[in-house]
Amino acid sequence: MDKTLLIAKIKDGTVIDHISPGKSFKVLSILNIDSSIGYTVTVAVHVPSKKMGFKDIVKIEGRFLEKEELDRISLAAPNAAISIIRNYEITEKFHVEIPEEITGIIDCPNQNCISNAREPVKPRFLVRSKNPLSLKCYYCERLINENEILQNL
Amino acid sequence: MLKNKSLVSIDDVSNEDLEEIFTLSDRMLGVVESNKNPHLMDSKIMATLFYEPSTRTRLSFESAMHRLGGSVISVSDASSSSVAKGETLADTIRMAEGYSDIIVMRHPLEGAARLAAQFSSKPIINAGDGSGQHPTQTILDLFTMWKEFGKIDGLKIALIGDLKYGRTVHSLILALSRFNVELTVISPPSLSIPEQFFSRIPENVKVRKSEKMEGFVEDADVLYVTRIQKERFADKNEYLSLIGSYSVDLKIVESLKKNAIIMHPLPRIDEIKPEVDFTKYARYFKQASYGIPVRMALISMILGVN
Ligand SMILES: Nc1ncnc2c1ncn2[C@@H]1O[C@H](COP(=O)(O)OP(=O)(O)OP(=O)(O)O)[C@@H](O)[C@H]1O
Ligand SMILES: [Mg+2]
Ligand SMILES: [Zn+2]
Description:
The complex is a heterodimer.
Chain A: E1 13-19, H1 24-30, E2 41-49, E3 53-61, H2 67-76, E4 81-86, E5 89-95, E6 101-103, E7 124-130, E8 133-137, E9 143-145, H3 146-152
Antiparallel strand pairs in A: 1-3, 1-4, 2-3, 4-5, 6-7, 7-8, 8-9
Chain B: H1 15-34, E1 45-50, H2 56-67, E2 71-75, H3 78-83, H4 89-96, E3 102-107, H5 112-119, E4 124-129, H6 135-149, E5 156-160, H7 167-176, E6 182-186, H8 195-198, E7 206-210, E8 222-225, H9 236-243, H10 250-254, E9 261-263, H11 284-289, H12 291-302
Parallel strand pairs in B: 1-2, 1-3, 3-4, 5-6, 5-8, 6-7, 8-9
The structure holds adenosine-5'-triphosphate, magnesium ion (MG) and zinc ion.
């Protein structure tokens, strides 16, 4: 008996590989993937990986990601590798990258920050350190750590 | 270089800028004492926008501008006029920049001055934003130390009192950390430095933490005492039982080094006993008086005349 279960290949779409183990749920929520979607998504959690020990993988049929979505993913899964699939083949492959400045993606957790008031600006953060991830609010200068970032994504 | 720049956070000022500010502040001290109009700000207008009550800071900015020969327009209660009408700070600033050459503002929300600077082509001076920054207070604190000791490097500084909520103390600690100093932070456990700030002190700065003054102030050059506010305690008895341990009295004063100084951003309540005022260590009223020359120096540097 054949012991492998084959998941059908994607014809066109996106593969997000090398997601830190357990973070695929966050990636799904960043991409607003829930049961109401009209396309197929395959998720593999805690898959043994030579490079990372374990990893998660998300494969999305028929969807290509926007820059802002990739930036968000970079905050949850900084090692993620993106493969763009067209006609069953990888046509493009790259790593997500944490931008130097993060604008409009997460709100400042400081309730007393002007960026949370009714002003014509988007919340804006400067990246202080990528590993461990630490951001500084451009306005109130508060530092926010990885946990706070994840909660806000 | 501060010319045409906003002064929002102490991070906007380099150590080199500080040296320049100290030297000019010292010269401005002479201008104040001479009681002559130096005509440095003829035809320049400062707007002060205070969204939060403050007498001390606003008066000292306005006095500094008048001393330089400039003029001041002022909204003392900006929150009741524009906020009530629903105007955003961004819009208020775009209006005020048309009326003035420099804007001094205080606002209850953190980051407000940074936002104002983003919408203004005229320089903004932050006179306090929520529990955030109050850079001119920090600079006058540093100037006081520089004036007394001729330098900041090498000083041993003990910071005492409310190190959690006190905004002046946070930016002072960050500023001092850029020099070669030894810090001792002394506070009740419930008012100790937030981890947020502690993690920003560079590793090369020596910091000791203590809950009591005895044994920790004797080698200090500077005792920087801050106000412990009753309102910070849910339980008034806790305040009463605690305040005694953090107030500087003659007994503490006697244990100090010969040329140590005692500073306080004022107003003080019980943290420094009145009898200390008459000792050679007291420097808090002098410190407060430096608010004028330091602000004169900052205004001159920002508006590009000296
Ligand atoms: N048509 C497809 N449908 C679904 N998944 C695909 C398709 N083509 C490639 N993949 C998946 O995309 C990811 C990247 O493929 P690639 O062949 O580059 O893997 P790799 O050689 O293991 O690279 P890496 O060093 O990034 O692990 C893998 O997880 C692979 O299973
Ligand atoms: Mg692989
Ligand atoms: Zn903020």
